Amino acid sequence: MSFLLALAAGLASPLAFAQAQPAAPKNKTAFVSDLIARMTLDEKIGQLRLISIGPEMPIAQLADEIAAGRVGGTFNSVNRPDNRRLQDAAMKSRMKIPMFFAYDVIHGHRTTFPIGLGLASSWDLGAVDLMARTAAREASADSIDMTFAPMVDIARDPRWGRTSEGFGEDPYLVSEIAKSAVKGFQGTVPVPAGRIMTSVKHFALYGAVEGGRDYNVVDMSPMRMYQDYLPPYRAAIDAGSGGVMVALNSINGVPATSNTWLMQDLLRRDWGFKGVAVSDHGAIVELIRHGVAKDEREAAKLAINNGIDLSMADSVYLNELPGLVKSGEVKMKAIDNAVREVLGAKYDMGLFRDPYLRIGVAKDDPADLNADSRLDRPAARDVARKSMVLLENRNRTLPLAKTAAIALVGPLADAPIDMLGSWSAAGYSKNAVTLRAGLNTAVAKNGGRLTYARGANITNDESTVKYLNFLNWDTPEVTQDPRAPAEMIAEAVKAAQQADVVVAAVGEARGMSHESSSRTSLDLPQSQRDLITALKATGKPLVLVLMNGRPLALVREQKEADAILETWYTGTEGGNAIADVLYGDYNPAGKLPISFPRSVGQIPTYYNHPRLGRPFTEGKPGNYTSQYYEEVTGPLYPFGYGLSYTEFSLSDVSLSSPTMRRNGKIEASVSVKNTGQRAGETVVQLYIQDIAASVVRPVKELRDFRKLMLQPGEERVVRFTIDEDKLKFFNAQLHRVAEPGRFNVQIGFDSQAVRQQGFELE
Ligand code: BGC
């Protein structure tokens, strides 16, 4: 009996279903078309509905809806018994089309890895791959089939709270990471067990919301879109991402959800995307609030006709599509197209072969979802160490002496939930190692001494605390120490006075760098500034360990601190990993994936800005050049910057030829030497500057990089191949071209400290 007949006859019990189907239905197109031909309109519409289990719909009701063929997938349920119950319900539906289960697996699942900015700071694609593979394995073991990741929105305005989630400001770096993430999460298509399908987000340009205020409009020239903001989505799609999540924002006046240029011309036609397009949470209904749909009926019509296949967390498709099809306003073809993508994705997830592929059998269900044995702590520690950026290290304050008496202070020194960062998926705060716990373990081993005092609350501003605790967390996350600020500071100062060195864990509660958490200031909250100033006054060496999800404005702290270690949010093994770095058991090698402004007024400070007619010239203030006259020009810490406990030197750049033929290539090389006393890694970065082109080009653009480990005294030649593709850009007609003329190759350890050599493209 054929697979489809077995389905139709209702012969397959859930388990028998899986076992009776050893061979996958061979031809996806034919298989899906055959299913569609036998579905009712209501069943088709049901497949387009993606429901959040929990507050949106309790599981019992959801199971009934599924059995009635009225739901295609769910998200936010991350345990096998629940999802088995829901899959059983699907197997009772007339068509027996399996459900899929999705979740925001962004930077880990049970094991939490560093947040996106931290992963990007590693400039280590192997680390990204390790995170994604581990997260996929764990999520898959919890019956998850799809993740709403990777999040590849270019972010150049750190006021935007979701800067934390992405990989920074640079199109090349973010694109490389996007590819690694997709391959790591998803592997091949069909997606095997142990991997999960990706849906790259948020398509498109979400990171460019005006003023960094979340959900604000995006207004952008096509050239900038093509050149800077679109490449990471494209890279993820070319790497095979099975899904795309559509952004909440409007783009040049049209919401992404109803933007036919975006979804049809660009995504489907020009890029050839063949997968499933998922709306963001409630985005279809929001077309009404955007003011492009007068009611839910019109919103549904706009979205379905625009190829939004899955409607997330609303019932507009369910309620409106039947009437719209009946009236002819929506053609059956539009419905069928969407259903085809949804069923195609399920096929690619392997669910028609085995609806229980990632659910498994009940006897294998884990007794304790949060059991330590389910975590990959070594992987988390390894990646966390790679994600930190040493911003300052005066007088070799770091690494700490193993026997040092340490005063550990600060509101983030012992805050498990904050170690995880936002979008921590199924990460469990009780499994997270805080800095206090990590240092305690290290001190016990090393023979030093540790005293702890909180020193300050995250903020003394009650309305901020209220906001943070109002966010969508299960429990209030920010707990205030009721003592007076002066009393807390006095305790910390006393601890500092009795110590050799002060380590202050300061920054943002994780909710401060989250969806909807935009800020007007990039300063540390005043409570923490006061603490730092008091600690500085003790005269003890002061190490700031920053935990935050966006670049902060650190002019004041740069002066006060002897060392600054940017740790972002490091995840489950954060405290151990930070201790490894502080003691020098690991030599930090992270580099900033986003530039740090001196103040909020300086934004944007991205390094690859377009050339100007009147660029700022060093040492010539007030001469009608582009600057803010009250502020030092340029970022405090540039893109690509990061220190090590050793030093590296760089030779001049040498090129294999002063000219490059059309379609040819040349080689650029530098010699890198570890001139310090310790083994260490650094990232050699290659930038290209186009001297004159038909359009204004960026001052420079990252085009390649290489991370390498050198022993003390070791010297190595690093070679980069430059081909025509690395010189290409989008011209005024939006054609990607390389124009003849002069180029500079700049190679260095960050975007500013470079050596350069020119060549000519013939
Ligand atoms: C976010 C998405 C997320 C979705 C589902 C939305 O609010 O914008 O990034 O994937 O919720 O949790």
Helices, strands, pairings?
Blueprint lengths: L2 H6 L5 H7 L7 H10 L3 H7 L1 E4 L6 H9 L5 E3 L4 H13 L7 E4 L12 H6 L3 H17 L4 E2 L23 H16 L10 E7 L18 H8 L1 H8 L4 E4 L3 E2 L2 E2 L4 H11 L5 E3 L7 H5 L5 H10 L5 E2 L3 H11 L5 H17 L28 H10 L2 E5 L11 E5 L6 H5 L14 H12 L2 E5 L8 H9 L14 H13 L3 E7 L18 H12 L4 E6 L7 H6 L2 E4 L7 H9 L65 E3 L3 E2 L3 E2 L4 E10 L5 E11 L10 E10 L4 E9 L5 E2 L5 E2 L3 E8 L5 E8 L1
Parallel strand pairs: 1-2, 1-10, 2-3, 3-4, 4-5, 5-6, 6-9, 12-13, 12-14, 14-15, 15-16, 19-27
Antiparallel strand pairs: 7-8, 11-16, 17-20, 18-20, 20-23, 21-22, 21-26, 24-25, 26-27
Helix pairs in contact: 3-16, 4-15, 4-16, 5-6, 8-9, 8-17, 9-11, 14-15, 17-24, 19-24, 21-22
The structure holds beta-D-glucopyranose.
Q: Which descriptors apply to this entry?
A:
six-stranded mixed sheet, eight-stranded parallel sheet, 762 residues, 27 strands, globular, single chain, Immunoglobulin-like, 24 helices, alpha/beta, Rossmann fold, TIM Barrel, binds beta-D-glucopyranose
